[in-house]
Structure prediction request, 331 residues.
Amino acid sequence: MVLTGDPEQLMLRMDNLADPTRLRLLRLLERRELGVAELVEILQLPQSTVSRHLKILADQGWVASRSQGTMNLYRMTPSDLEPSARALWKVARRETGEWATARQDDLRLDHHLSNGGRRAEEFFAGAAAHWDKLRREQYGDRYGVIGLLALLPASDVVADLGCGTGSALADLAGHVKRVIGVDSSTEMLKAARQRTREMSNVELYRAPLESLPIRDGECDAATMFLALSYVADPTRALAEMARILRPGGRAVVVDLMSHDREAFRIEMGQRHLGFEPAALESLAEEAGLEGVTTRPLVPEPGAQGPALVMLTGRQAAPVRTIHAEAIEERT
Prediction:
């Protein structure tokens, strides 16, 4: 890397890049011209924070802006930068390529672009926004989920591992033969029992996910929603999930994608900073699942937490010997 020009100017350029928010902004604006509202949505930061950092970047020549109606659009074009800034940005972009936060930003930007960006916002501000409100007022939000659940075979036995307060159990109960909920929290199970008290096909058990009180091959499907990040031994929990499935049984895991928000992890009481999709696939295959695939889930509007990843797989191997002590506790 060759740097030219005034050393004081170089130091100022380096100071400009010594802030994670400004790095995130530049990475996004190199990919796409965006307005403040779009950046606020993608970065999940307050508008005042985004505007303040944009002003710094604009004043120092990192970004250019133009007006479109009442909105300012911002863009960063490396070829327009001064040589020292261009050289520094080349290093910064390379060194942040595997930054978990930047990858989450990229995922949100990809979703924004796939929906047409500003064109979609304009559309939803008109007819679609009115239609969604009208439809919700007249019919509620639940019919879509219920309709999809109706596609499940009525003869299925489904386990929800880390069932929490039982929201998924209640959804499943009306569409399958039996639903088995397992959680390690007494308080969570108390809420789940209250929620499913009139559902005769729901069974609830208190147990760690690493030692399930369910027989080998007893289930046609198993889910684990936002629970793996709390488990001390994810591989063993996934192995237990595979064990309780019949040959051909289906597994679905949804959990946090790898991130670097340590304060969030502590606040939520989680053991892990999410999972890399490839690493999660390896854990599931090691646990005995086959046909394993993962894909990131598009963050929902207004969601404040890290992005999520979904894993699916099936049990194709012969089932293994059950933990006798788990069955004894169940009975």
In short: The first strand starts at residue 34 and ends at 35.
